[in-house]
Amino acid sequence: MAKTKEIGADVLICDTAGRLHNKKYLMDELAKIKKVIDKEMPEARKEILIVLDAETGQNAIAQVKAFKETTDITGIVLTKLDGTSKGGVVIGIVAENQIPIKFIGVGEQIEDMQVFDSTEFLDAML
Questions:
Q1: How far apart are the first and last CA of the chain?
Q2: What percent of the chain has pLDDT over 90?
Q3: Chain mean position to CA 121
């Protein structure tokens, strides 16, 4: 974070991949990261995205619940929509938690990341 301030960067990305919602010490570290960012950069706009695997199913509900207890989630990235999975579990998550889907992943390349379009998503599900 110090380097971000020093060089006057517009964006700081903290990738916390591997945070398992059922590992308390990892979730505690996530809370600490947010606390430090809030302290060091209180004026910064923060986008906190949870990445959910479309193949996860019902386990995604537990993931979102645990992450919401630890930090303020502002959006969902739904990945692995290139296979047979439709990601239907996310409909209940969005409805219950009022967290929007921001992006979807439909492949393994960077260009396979797309801005979420609800109409296309529903058409694909039906």
A1: 44
A2: 24
A3: 18
* Cα(107)–Cα(50) distance, integer angstroms: 18
Residue 83 is predicted with a pLDDT of 67
Cβ-based neighbour number of residue 23 at 10 Å: 12
Distances (CA, A) of 37 to 15, 43, 94: 13, 10, 26
The sign of the dihedral angle between the CA atoms of 61, 87, 81, 71 is negative
For 81, the 3-state DSSP assignment is coil
Which residue ranges form the domains of the chain, and what is each CATH number? 2-125 (3.40.50.300)
Q: What is the pTM of this model?
A: 0.83
